[in-house]
Amino acid sequence: MNKPVSKAEIEKLSPKAEKQTLLWLQSGGCGGCSLSLLCAEGPDLITGFEAAGIEVLWHPSLSLETGSEFTDILNRILSGEQQLDILCLEGSAMCGPNGTGKFHMMAGTGRPMIDWIKDLSSHAKHVVAVGSCAAFGGITAAGDNEVEAVGLSYDGKEPGGLLGSEFRSQSGLPVVNIAGCPTHPNWVLETLMSLAFNSFTEAQMDDLERPRSYTDHLVHHGCPRNEFYEFKASAEQPSDLGCMMEHMGCLGTQARADCNTRLWNGDGSCLRGGYACINCTAPKFEEPGHPFMETPKIAGIPIGLPTDMPKAWFVALASLSKAATPDRLRENATADHIKVPPSGGGKKK
């Protein structure tokens, strides 16, 4: 009979996580990524940080330090007295007016936030952009962008941003762009834990420096409306059950994220809530050039077709699919509840 392993023996065999310090700043954004992160499950935020040995130097929603206590932390980092392993920025870097950064001054310091971000980035082992605003400019950069909002290493789709496309942190990594609006809590926690365990490499980043752990997937994967998509049985208004790609602006076949397989709070996603995917993990998602809930078309063919399918093939497949659409799907697609259930194959009583 095997001898039971004690808790002390398990702890002895388990690798000890080295302490990794984290500083979280907010700039031009809504704070939604922090609110999302606080809802992390499996593990929860505090358990995840403890398991990875992450010590939070300061976070606007978690920390007690204010005023001079907060600025003392920043100054100790810049002087070299305080180690900084992970610098997270939530929200875009606001460079206006005219590149001065004075649209966003850090209270009590007399310095623009962008200057603090630049200085702290040079002292950080890793630099992480949390959310599409910090990664690419996001919602803050929409419209005329009078505040001159940019991401840390991207200005929309163009490399550059506040730190420049050639920026590398002390670890040798570029800015890690955990894009999303808001980010899924586990995208953030998983990436921060990987960085803390020194297991995150540049090979785990896609062409926009986003973690491949979630961008190697499409939102389309696991979509509960996939049967409607297969037969091109389309919704015509927001309350309908059918596929939202043809008429309702859904970009799930193009958006790189695992929202429908890694559910939010174990239960939801935009599509499961009846809202079309707007591809919020991509740069410039905030300005599609048309209403989010409309699908632009040319000669009746949606412009936003699946990224990895030739247009001619899609048109041919769609025609065949529509011809073969079961009556059940055709009727349910434009209903707000299931009118015709699947046939059970049993005998009628």
Q: List the helices and strands in order.
A: HEHHEHEEEEHEHEEEEHHHEEHH
Largest sheet: 5 strands, parallel
CATH architecture of the largest domain: 3-Layer(aba) Sandwich
Q: Kindly identify the CATH topology of the largest domain.
A: Rossmann fold
Rg to the nearest angstrom?
Answer: 23 Å
Q: In the CATH hierarchy, what is the superfamily of the largest domain?
A: NADH:ubiquinone oxidoreductase-like, 20kDa subunit
The level 1 CATH classification of the largest domain is: Alpha Beta
**Helix tally?**
11
The number of domains? 2
What can be said about this structure in brief?
The protein is an alpha/beta fold and 349 residues long. It has eleven helices and 13 strands.
Can you characterise this structure?
By secondary structure, this protein is α/β, with parallel strands linked by helices. The protein folds into two domains: 17-215, NADH:ubiquinone oxidoreductase-like, 20kDa subunit (Rossmann fold, 3-Layer(aba) Sandwich), CATH 3.40.50.700; 224-335, Cytochrome-c3 hydrogenase, C-terminal domain (Cytochrome-c3 Hydrogenase, Chain A, domain 2). Helices cover 26% and strands 12% of the residues. The chain has helices spanning 7-13, 32-37, 45-52, 67-79, 113-123, 132-136, 185-196, 212-215, 226-230, 311-323, 327-333; strands spanning 20-26, 54-58, 86-90, 93-94, 105-106, 111-112, 126-130, 149-150, 154-155, 158-159, 176-178, 297-298, 301-302. The strands form five sheets. Strands 2-1-3-7-11 form a five-stranded parallel beta sheet, with helices on both faces. Strands 4-8 form a two-stranded antiparallel sheet. Strand 5 and strand 6 (111-112) form a beta hairpin. The longest helix has 13 residues, at 67-79. The chain starts with 6 loop residues before the first helix and ends in a 16-residue tail after the last helix.
